[in-house]
Amino acid sequence: MDEQFKQLHAGRMQEKKAQVLAAVERAQTERGIVVLLTGHGKGKTTSAFGMLYRALGHGLRAGVVQFIKGTHATGEITFLHHLGLLGQGPASQVQYHAMATGCTWQRSDWDADKPAADIAWQAAQRMLCDDSLRLVVLDELTFMLQYGYLQMEYVLQAIRNRPQGQTVVITGRSAHAQLIALADTVSDIAETKHAFKAGVKAQAGVDF
Ligand code: ATP
Ligand code: MG
Question: What is the mean pLDDT of residues 43-65?
Fold first, then answer.
């Protein structure tokens, strides 16, 4: 490698380091945030569970509400179950609720799903009032709002009034503008390609 390139590289790295250090210095506020993972690309729910496992790794308590249950038991939930971390009781490290009737992509029956959505929202509300939970994942919340199962004003109010140190992670496609406005961090995951569109079947460990 020639000397001139090495010097140029060292200079650029020095500049980068100074920028990062200045940004770290500026970020001094400590509080829970709202993370919104939306868009049509793959990676919303798995990213939310990545954050959940991070929190658990630090010994923190968390809550998860899944507003849509797919047809397969997912690896991320089965894994927590095997570790004995899941439950609805106060002693569980992860408070967990999945919508009972399972409003799914395949089937939707308002009369069965609306009461189940209300019960799931009650579970979410309890979590959003519990300051022992440092992370609350509301998986597929956007779907519930989009199709009128839950009312935006109640959802926004509960999230705004949560304990100061609690972080909320919301996932789902087509996030409403009011949710985007409320969130501190928004990732819009674009679908550049998806294997399913090329005929590849959904598989354990990759898609569920
Ligand atoms: P994942 O659970 O893999 O992180 P996701 O939460 O971003 O995906 P959803 O919109 O919740 O995606 O879709 C649920 C299921 O559909 C998952 O099995 C996921 O792998 C799959 N999926 C995600 N994005 C796409 C897509 N663009 N086309 C087809 N299938 C998708
Ligand atoms: Mg998802």
Answer: 98
